[in-house]
Amino acid sequence: LGIDTSCDETAAAVVADGREVLSNIVASQVETHQEYGGVVPELASRKHIEAINYIVSRSLAEAGVTFKDLEAIAVTNRPGLIGALLVGVAAAKSLAYCHNLPLLGINHIEGHIYAPCMVHDALPFPHICLTVSGGHTLLVEVHEGWQYKVLGSTQDDAAGEVYDKVAKYLGLGFPGGKVIDDLAQKGNPSAVKFPRPMRNTDDYQFSFSGIKTSVRYFVEKARRAGLHIAASFQAAVVDVLVYKSLRAVKATGAAAITLTGGVAANSHLRASLKLAAAEIGAEVYYPPMNLCTDNGAMIAGIAYQKYQQGLRDGLSLNATPKGSIF
Ligand code: KG4
Ligand code: ZN
């Protein structure tokens, strides 16, 4: 059983042998946070406590198993919104205690990195993983045995976060990723030349807040059609993400790139990355959308691998808002 309550989704899933998803139940809180234009941590915690028991029960029922069939319970305990994480951790601890099952605390980012491996079982190692979500932008070299080398991350906003902010400036509601993606398809990506911060720096770091600010000023002064702004904004973000990911592939000689996190749904990012990777003979892999966005299956999946490696946590397991995967 894998449980994730790190942000605004209450998620539980049952996975067999690290790959076979028997159930994957997610309760989205998007309607709760919509009116605030972003996730309100306090409300997220309260929604999790309402939903958690039901979501866990449903994940078992849909998988056709009972607690007796489980081998272990895994829960995201870092990084994330602390109040939200605590709900999942407290639930997992109670269940582990009551049913006398081993407990594993899992890093949410490792879950995202593992998601593409659940569906592509012959993924080469090392490979480069680009994790892009509402909370994270991370370029990681993934080695055999689930060892990671973090190459770079965002210095300010996450990629999904700027999509959400730009959607707000354009009056498109929350969350903004999908709306902007759709609108951008009809717009001209060269209409506005937005900056590409840190594109040419000699590293794997990202910076997106400068793009966000440029879009904001542009929207305020020029009433240019939203679709052209959306397309030009998306072109800037995707350009930097693709350029740096390819740079990492070339430098490391990795044979594949995986794409994961909510922004992995982006049509322009998928297409551009595929095209650029094909030019250097690298493969691009991404999981289906229900494994890209926050879910419990990726947590159960990586937990299975860690369980094989001997990881066990005691009932004193705690949650922490930050958590590196070094
Ligand atoms: O992984 P996720 O569900 O939650 C976090 O861990 O943050 O990612 C949600 C993020 C939101 O910022 C949303 O706007 C973005 O993913 N997103 C997209 C698209 N679909 C969702 N961003 C760009 N293009 C999309 N098609
Ligand atoms: Zn996530």
From TrEMBL:
Instruction: Enumerate the UniProt keywords alphabetically.
Output: Acyltransferase, Cytoplasm, Iron, Metal-binding, Transferase, tRNA processing
Entry's transmembrane regions: none
In the Enzyme Commission scheme, what number(s) does this protein have?
2.3.1.234
Q: Is the Acyltransferase keyword given for this protein?
A: yes
Give GO terms: molecular function aspect only: metal ion binding; tRNA N(6)-L-threonylcarbamoyladenine synthase activity
Instruction: Look up keyword NADP and say if it applies.
Output: no
A single Gene Ontology biological process assigned to it is:
tRNA threonylcarbamoyladenosine modification
Q: Which Pfam family would be a valid example here? A: TsaD
Tell me where in this chain the Gcp-like domain is found.
20-300
> Catalytic activity annotated for this protein?
L-threonylcarbamoyladenylate + adenosine(37) in tRNA = N(6)-L-threonylcarbamoyladenosine(37) in tRNA + AMP + H(+)
Which SUPFAM superfamilies does the record cross-reference, listed alphabetically? Actin-like ATPase domain
The protein's name is N(6)-L-threonylcarbamoyladenine synthase
Species of provenance: Geodia barretti (Barrett's horny sponge)
Q: What is the lineage of its organism?
A: Eukaryota, Metazoa, Porifera, Demospongiae, Heteroscleromorpha
